[in-house]
């Protein structure tokens, strides 16, 4: 061991010529590589099947085909040009930048092909943010914004890694990992209802089994050919016998695999039919909190009276073309009652009505029975976060200069048919709705309705006066549908309509809380408007067993041809009940407006009071409700200094640079981390002899990473000769003596070997440029099946 302590000699003159062994990889021909590329294309296409419900667009199909071709070209270039992993990574990054905009962000591509700065910005941002955006948006997404980027990254990286593994690794079966990862990712990011899950899964399984069988047969054939070359003396008869036996084995293997697949397919079909899971399939989007929460906004029903006050009552709110006369233009659907307000969604329980998602392309309403309708809406005086819609929405298209802004801020709840635009809409906004108007029962079918199974939050603080009045309405009536009709008919017969906003109208308080509804049913005359009657009607339907909710919107019988102008006076509220026969059915609980009698003239017990000298103040109308959240008043903060804005801009630029640098450097850092972990594991081995051989393995790995080729079956002495210098030879002899000597290894000798290895690794870097040292650090030659796993010969 004395020689290991000497000063290290220079190895600059060490020979670095390639001593490459012959291997099966060097005999890859172009037709063979193209055939494997085609087979791998099929595997990647099968792996991408679960992503189809996520996108459902031709842009996705183009992306899959083009990206697999691009990734295959990179992998083939690496095979035939013998490129290192660094150059393959560099080619992948360049392909990502050149083709990513056209394939993954087509809306930002110049002429549909060339990348742009905005496109590259969205492309890079989509790598980090596109995954979560896919989970917070309604499916399918098509080519919306940069949501194709996750699929592009998975397919590009998977193709490059998978095909390179198949053509350059000893274990080509590992090439199946990228298609499987793509398949699982499609399930995780996809909808709760998968597209052809059994067929897609069985096809991928069949392709994977055939891939494994084929590559193992190929390795067997290569091994037999090598054996035949070593036994040339047996003659051509032996060669023919081996080849025919190889063909027989291949036939049996393929036939057995196909038979196994057929049995597995039959068993899977039976199992999925007989043992179908009863619970709803959980996917990642079920755990993501949606970005729009309707509970952050005031109940739109509480602003009902604002439309009945001047000047809103006579002002044009919306101009609608294509809406049949008398149909309802929905503002919002409210299904949660807490004794104070009817609201959209509940803060006590998680309900589907409170979950809003973005709609990038369209909603699939093919299961809804109804009539297709197309409506154009132009906003005049209306404003608010709730976007008026009709029926069950399929698509919405905004027009104007800010169309893309409204489109990006649009959210929809398909359970209730309620739409919202974050930031609100105002005058000048125009949009077109494509929707399906669900089929409604005829008047004669209403009495036969029975409650459906929809889930709505249970109302609380229901007034006792409402229950007692309801009992009187339905007394002696049988049948749930008939009892509901009797309850609404009784309220329409006894009720009078008054908004309480004019001098000639009787007093009628706004609101629909428990106290206001109690007053509605206990006053001598039932006086209110659609705000109270709709709330009372929904609560009565709930008491009768029907899931119910309130619908706020505009309704008018005044139209000019196919165009209707809704004014504030056209505001109304109705109810919807879920039925087993028709689903959600719209019912009108509002009484027909008629003259309200003066109860003071008909009441004989009324006592005349002397007129007071001081007249009471006049009745004030209800204050206007602007449907906005209350805000505290505070002084405006002084403007920030200019240097803070400069620092913020610099920090933002630095953040983007760090993000891009992190994405580019992540593979290199992973390679360095793997090497450090390997070095620590070798140096901490419990046995001194293993630590010493681990030190030699570490040195040989450094030699490989520095580009010095060694024979596949080279001994330690031969490796030292390839490196050059006397110190490498001394290290080889010391390690050989430790391995083959009868006595145990001294732990101190192992420590000295590792010290010498560290010095010799540093010596390999001397005289190299920074770029050459970096290439050695990130080289994967020693990681991918490196030479020297077997104990070398003496």
From TrEMBL:
Residues covered by the Transglutaminase-like domain: 510-589
UniProt domain Protein-glutamine gamma-glutamyltransferase TgpA N-terminal: residue ranges: 42-440
Name of a matching Pfam family: Transglut_core
Disordered: annotated segments: 1-22, 586-638
Keyword terms of this UniProt record: Membrane, Transmembrane, Transmembrane helix
Highest taxon of the lineage: Bacteria
Segments crossing the lipid bilayer: 30-52, 58-81, 88-111, 143-167, 174-192, 198-217, 253-276, 642-674
Name of protein: Transglutaminase-like domain-containing protein
Organism classification: Bacteria, Bacillati, Actinomycetota, Actinomycetes, Micrococcales
């Amino acid at each position: 061991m004395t020689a290991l302590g000497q000063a290290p000699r220079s190895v600059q003159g060490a020979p670095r010529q390639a001593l490459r062994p012959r291997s099966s990889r060097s005999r890859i021909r172009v037709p063979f590589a193209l055939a494997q590329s085609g087979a791998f294309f099929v595997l990647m296409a099968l792996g991408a099947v679960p992503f189809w419900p996520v996108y459902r667009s031709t842009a996705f199909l183009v992306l899959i085909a083009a990206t697999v071709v691009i990734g295959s070209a990179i992998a083939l270039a690496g095979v035939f040009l013998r490129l290192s992993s660094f150059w393959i990574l560099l080619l992948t990054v360049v392909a990502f930048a050149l083709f990513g905009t056209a394939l993954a962000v087509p809306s930002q591509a110049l002429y549909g092909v060339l990348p742009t700065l905005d496109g590259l910005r969205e492309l890079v941002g989509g790598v980090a943010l596109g995954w979560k955006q896919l989970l917070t948006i309604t499916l399918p997404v098509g080519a919306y914004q940069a949501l194709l980027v996750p699929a592009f990254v998975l397919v590009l990286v998977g193709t490059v890694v998978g095909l390179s593994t198949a053509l350059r690794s000893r274990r080509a079966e590992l090439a199946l990992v990228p298609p499987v990862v793509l398949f699982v990712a499609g399930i995780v990011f996809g909808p709760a209802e998968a597209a052809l899950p059994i067929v897609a899964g069985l096809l991928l399984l069949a392709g994977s089994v055939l891939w494994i069988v084929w590559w193992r047969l190929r390795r067997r054939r290569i091994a037999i050919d090598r054996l035949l070359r070593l036994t040339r003396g047996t003659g051509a008869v032996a060669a023919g016998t081996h080849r025919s036996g190889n063909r027989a084995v291949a036939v049996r293997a393929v036939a057995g695999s196909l038979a196994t697949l057929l049995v597995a397919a039959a068993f899977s079909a039976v199992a999925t039919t007989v043992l179908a899971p009863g619970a709803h399939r959980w996917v990642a989007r079920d755990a993501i909190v949606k970005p729009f929460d309707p509970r952050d906004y005031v109940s739109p029903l509480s602003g009902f009276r604002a439309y009945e006050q001047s000047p809103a009552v006579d002002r044009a709110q919306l101009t609608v073309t294509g809406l049949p006369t008398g149909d309802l233009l929905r503002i919002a659907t409210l299904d949660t009652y807490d004794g104070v307000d009817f609201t959209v969604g509940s803060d006590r329980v998680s309900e589907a009505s409170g979950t809003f998602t973005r709609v990038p392309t369209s909603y699939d309403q093919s299961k809804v029975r109804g009539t297709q309708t197309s409506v154009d809406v132009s906003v005049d005086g209306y404003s608010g976060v709730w976007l008026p819609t009709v029926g069950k929405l399929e698509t919405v298209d905004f027009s104007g200069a800010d169309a893309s802004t409204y489109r990006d801020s649009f959210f929809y709840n398909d359970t209730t048919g309620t739409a919202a635009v974050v930031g609100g809409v105002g005058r000048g906004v125009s949009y077109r709705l494509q929707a399906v108007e669900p089929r409604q029962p005829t008047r004669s079918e209403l009495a036969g309705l029975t409650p459906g199974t929809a889930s709505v939050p249970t109302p609380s603080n229901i007034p006792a006066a409402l229950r007692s009045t309801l009992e009187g309405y339905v007394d002696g009536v049988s049948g749930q549908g008939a009892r509901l009709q009797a309850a609404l008919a009784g309220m329409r017969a006894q009720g009078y309509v008054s908004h309480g906003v004019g001098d000639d109208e009787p007093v009628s308080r706004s609101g629909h809380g428990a106290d206001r509804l109690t007053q509605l049913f206990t006053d001598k005359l039932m006086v209110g408007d659609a705000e109270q009657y709709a709330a009372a009607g929904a609560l009565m339907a709930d008491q009768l067993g029907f899931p119910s909710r309130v619908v706020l919107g505009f309704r008018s019988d005044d139209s000019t041809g196919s165009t209707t102008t809704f004014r504030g006076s056209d505001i109304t509220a109705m109810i919807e009940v879920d039925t087993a026969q028709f689903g959600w059915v719209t019912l009108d609980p509002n009484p027909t407006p008629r003259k309200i009698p003066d109860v003071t003239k008909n009441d004989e017990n009324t006592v005349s009071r002397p007129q007071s000298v001081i007249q009471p103040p006049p009745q004030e109308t209800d204050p206007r409700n602007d449907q906005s959240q209350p805000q505290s008043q505070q002084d405006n903060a002084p403007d920030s200094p200019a240097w803070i804005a400069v620092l913020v801009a610099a920090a933002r630029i630095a953040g983007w640079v760090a993000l891009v640098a992190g994405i580019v450097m992540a593979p290199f850092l992973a390679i360095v981390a793997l090497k450090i972990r390997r070095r620590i594991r070798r140096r901490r081995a419990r046995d001194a002899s293993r630590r010493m051989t681990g030190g030699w393995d570490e040195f040989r790995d450094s030699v490989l990473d520095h580009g010095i080729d060694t024979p596949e079956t080279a001994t330690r002495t031969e490796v030292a000769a390839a490196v050059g210098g006397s110190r490498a030879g001394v290290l080889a002899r010391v390690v050989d003596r430790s391995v083959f000597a009868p006595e145990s290894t001294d732990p101190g000798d192992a420590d000295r070997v590792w010290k010498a290895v560290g010095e010799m690794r540093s010596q390999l870097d001397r005289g190299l440029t920074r770029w050459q040292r970096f290439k050695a650090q990130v080289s994967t030659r020693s990681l991918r099946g490196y030479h020297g796993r077997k104990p070398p010969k003496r």
